[in-house]
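hey can u check if this looks right to u? its 205 residues, i copy pasted from the old doc so theres a chance i mangled smth
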Amino acid sequence: MPLSLGWEELNEFFFGMNLAVDFIFLLDVCKNFCTGYVDENDAIIMDVKLVRRNYLTGFFITDFCSSIPLDLILKTAGVDSVGGTVTGTKQSLKMLKTLRITKLLRLFRINRLFQYLKKVMLLIEETLNIRISDGFTKLMRLGVGALILAHWIGCFNFLLVRLHDFPSDSWVVYAGLVDKSPYVQWSWSFFKALAQMIMIGFETP
């Protein structure tokens, strides 16, 4: 969860959800070893050896690294606890916690998610005997993708500032957000990310 990356105080609240998502992604990794694929000749390949080789040389590394339950590992090791004794310095503790950035690799799955959604749209068309225009589908895909990307960028922007202990010249300090609630901080981060994406400016850098 990108919110857990930027706001450590939310880790405990989202711990169960994050753990469930991690295990679902791990199950998906296992499933992909048994799922056929379409080759360059549009032929469906179901041979077990070819399927496993295709996945291992494709998305396996990014899928596996982004599915490791780091929250559970860090919590078990005591890194997330106030009195954690895993490391002796504040800087090394931060470095351990930034391992969660590997979750950003899940962004590579967005394209496959849209492919699944496209199949769902086709199923709906066949079931309800209606036709959804390609323009509407592309518009929805663009809108949803932009919002997801802005959410991730916003959380990552706040994470970078937080890792440097909120420098006095950072946009978080300029906007007076250091002592605000996570919801207010996220709202500003999300707006800043959208502003960067559509190339508009506002007073805070």
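Confidence is low (pLDDT under 50) at residues 81-89.
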